[in-house]
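Name: Kinesin-like protein
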Amino acid sequence: MSEDHNLDSSSILVFCRFRPPNDNESAQYKNISIEFYDDNKTLKINPNEDVAYPQEFIYDWIFTPQSSQKLVYRKSSKPIIKAVLEGFNGTVLAYGQTSSGKTYTMMGSDIDCKDKKGIIPRMVRTVFKQIMKTEEKIEFLLKVSYCEIYMENIRDLLNPVKSNLKIRENKTQGIYIENLTDVGVVSEGEVFDLMKFGDKNREVSATNMNAGSSRSHSIFILSVMQTNSQDLSAKLSKLYLVDLAGSEKVGKTNVTGKHLEEAKKINTSLTMLGIVINALTDGKSTHIPYRDSKLTRVLQDSLGGNSKTTLIINCSPSVYNENETLSTLRFGFRAKSIKNKPKINREYSILELKSLLAKAHEELNKKEQVILAQKEALAACGLESGKTSLENSYRIDDTSIEDIKKTELYDEVLSELYDIQEKFKVQSKHFRRASFELETVLIENAEHKKSSIFIYTQIQELQRKIGLLEKSIKTKDEMIENLTYTNEIIQKELERESYAKISLQQQLITAQNSLQNIETYKNQQLENQIIALNQQIEDEKAKNLTTLLDLQKAKENLHKYIQTETTQNEKFQILEKTYKQDKTRWEEIEKKYKDNHQKALEMHLKMQEDIKKQQDQYSKLKSFLNEGEAKILKRSESCEKTLEKLTIMYHQIAIQNSTLNVSKQVLEKKINRMVTENMNLLDENNKIKEKLKILQKLSYGIVSEREKNDEDLKKFKVLKKNKFKKTLKGGLANKDGLSESFCDIVPSSDSYES
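Structure predicted for Kinesin-like protein:
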């Protein structure tokens, strides 16, 4: 089978690829019972417990798990390159459940490896190879864009700052993404670098089914502009390479949180894609819901629009994923019925339109000559010779008109005349539009000239101001130098004063320390003496208290004894009255009482003498204590005098310190003021320098804009437009755009087929 025999058809080409089972699937599950037919187009899935009958599916080609990356590219995607270089839009989509091998099919595991790289790097290489095989008169202008649809938000992968991009549509560009970065490229290396950069910015994370699961739909766009340098005809085609995110069952992936929201958005967009495909294939829908999802809106031209499209469905061979595999196979089978309307995207240049108009005028002149010849022939057939106008030729009789119309020459001339008239109308319309565009461009150029003159005068005025500013900057620089010199002098003076202040502070600290030592020593001695005296007094007090207590006890005993004696007397009187015979005994008792009373009195007198002695001793101790206190007072007075002297010295030092602080603060304020003035001058200087840079850039931009306008005017005069920055010419002159190993194999046609 030829590689591109189906490209003439407007149907979407659908290819099916089964990946090999992974380690987890091989260890835990069996493979689906799949039968691949020898024609490589049909497969049959045999029944199991869930499916009651075999199911057959037919596609444009089926790749078994043993199929190489090279074979997948050669069969499915290589023919698209030929269509793109002919001027058609091309699309390659990869569809399937998560972990089914879509990204491996599109990108490969290593874009630099010959065997592992996927469809996208191989297509890029083929584009540059075909450019080398094209004639040198064809100029190629290539641009690359790379974006992703993540959570229904279009993000620019080449400029990640750009997000939430909008989808627009117009007649010339069709459906496009507004403000999407497009980078001009001249070699496959540049394309691969951009591809790697964009892949780093993609949303990828790990799930239970795939360690590197794509969380977004990626779209890689390669724009190809071809211009013929001889007839100035142009073709603009776009190649869309789409890696769709895989559908997920949350029960299998066990995602939560952010990943769960991602899975919901992915499944929703893929569901909308299925709805669009059903609407395109059922033949009953009057409305196709492209706008219900950003994915379907971007792929509107690829699905039923202006594009040659290839769909690669990726499947897992494991029984664990059997339901998802059957769903993917049914999706691809439905998509085979979609009919696209591809057309060559050709742009006519003004020169080409003029040449076509000239050809139309030339053909009209030829036809007019033929008509004149026919008129002469008609006149020779019997018409009036004096009337040469076309109206007079219609006045001949009906039979002669019928005879003339039967002639083949008349029919041929009439049909050609109608065709030329239609072409002339179209070409004149194009010419009017081109002339209008030319007038608008000339008006714009005149306005640009006026603005450039005005800007030039502004530049001169700004240059004059720059000169004045430079002079003021010089004077301010001199002021800054003077201020810095005075600042240094003041700093030195401050340092000297700070040293003097430090020495005075040290002297003050030493004096304070010596005073504190003297005070502590004297206070310690006085405290020790007072403590000793207090201890002696306390001891004497204790002794006196004990003696007093003893005396009080004796006094109490004496009072008790006296009280008892009074009671005895009363009893004695009673007894004397009652018992007279005991009189003698009473006298003895009275005598004893008197003796005891005398003893008690003596004891009382003795105790009073002892108390007197103790009081005298206490008075002596008290006088001694007073003498010690006087000595202490004298010592404290001398200490106070020395303290007063030291405080006077301290106050003098403090006054000197305060004066130094005041002078220091004044100097610091002066320095700060000078520093702020210096900084303000520096800031003003920097601002002036920035203004100078801006003015220089502005002047350079104006000059470059003038040069650019002049160059555009020249190009427009020769009717040659060039919208891209980087151009490539066909032929081997562009082998710098390819790697050395690739250039070595270019002349061989066999290597191209491989």
